[in-house]
Amino acid sequence: MPEATKYQDPATIQRVLHTGRSIAIVGLSANTLRASHFVGYYAQRHGYQIIPVNPREEQVLGEESFNSLTAVGDTVDIVNVFRDPAAVPAIAKEAVAVGAKALWLQFGVISDEGAAIAADAGLDVIMDRCLKVEHARYIGRMHWLGLNTEVVTARRPVRR
What we know:
This protein is α/β, with parallel strands linked by helices. It has a single domain (4-132), classed as Rossmann fold. It is built from 5 helices and 7 strands. It has helices at residues 10-19, 35-45, 88-97, 112-120, 131-138; strands spanning 22-26, 49-53, 59-60, 63-64, 78-81, 102-105, 124-126. It has a 5-stranded parallel sheet, sandwiched between helices. The chain has a two-stranded antiparallel ribbon with strand order 3-4. Helix 3 packs parallel to helix 4 (112-120). The chain starts with 9 loop residues before the first helix and ends in a 22-residue tail after the last helix.
């Protein structure tokens, strides 16, 4: 049984979002209908440096695409993964090798082995969460709607 909830700590998510500036998106697609493209576009619009990692693409969102994390050459703060869970352990090893600070596995990308590799090397790990949704929840505008309070209501507090 995967321990995905172990890697969904709100404090860790907020720290990664607040301190990370560059995001290598493994599996970023140029297809605008793909979730990876939308997440990359959203992150880019919110000031993050996007680094596409996809050997099938030459360029995505105006940025050069790399074949692997090790080919990037620049500092990577967050490695965001849109790949099959079977590929995660190898990606986690690359994330450790390039000195990334966090490994972020998107919805449905659950790999206990990959998470353990990254966590054992000191990386923050977030699993089975969407970077865009979590950014909107903690930094974007969703918190104004009360979604971060665990109480969803249309009732306004009574002021006395």
